[in-house]
Design brief:
It holds the Pfam family MaoC_dehydratas. This is MaoC-like domain-containing protein. It is elongated, with a radius of gyration of 15 Å. The mean pLDDT is about 95. The protein has a five-stranded antiparallel beta sheet with strand order 1-3-4-5-2. The chain is an alpha+beta fold. Helices cover about 30% and strands about 40% of the residues.
């Protein structure tokens, strides 16, 4: 299990790199208008972060396929808990808030490099 705070700076960096500049991710007013207290993280940022965190701990693995379902958004300045469970070449991951709400879940296939 790993914990990561989703910061506004990380979201700005991801938006610039991905060219996904949707206001809901970057602008307080747009996020508020959409019903959130703060901007929300990009789903693809969360998926990439899950993969990166796993690979940091398992450097002999290579991700060959992945699938992620997003259940609810997460606002910036919140902690996400990444819970990994491994079964042979399949890694299941669940992303939750500190309160236990599931943000996303999925799996990726891995192989030894």
């Amino acid at each position: 299990m790993m914990r990561k705070c989703i910061t506004a700076e990380a979201i700005r960096q991801y938006a610039a790199a991905s060219q996904d500049l949707a206001a809901i991710h970057l602008d307080e007013d747009a996020a508020t208008e959409a019903g959130f207290k703060r901007p929300i993280a990009h789903g693809m940022y969360l998926m990439g972060l899950a993969q990166s965190l796993y690979i940091e701990e398992h450097q002999a693995q290579w991700i060959t396929q992945y699938d992620m379902k997003f259940h609810k958004p997460i606002e910036v300045d919140n902690v996400v808990i990444f819970d990994f469970s491994e079964d042979d070449c399949l890694v299941k991951v669940t992303l939750t808030t500190e309160a236990g709400d599931v943000i996303a879940s999925g799996a990726f296939s891995v192989k030894e490099v």
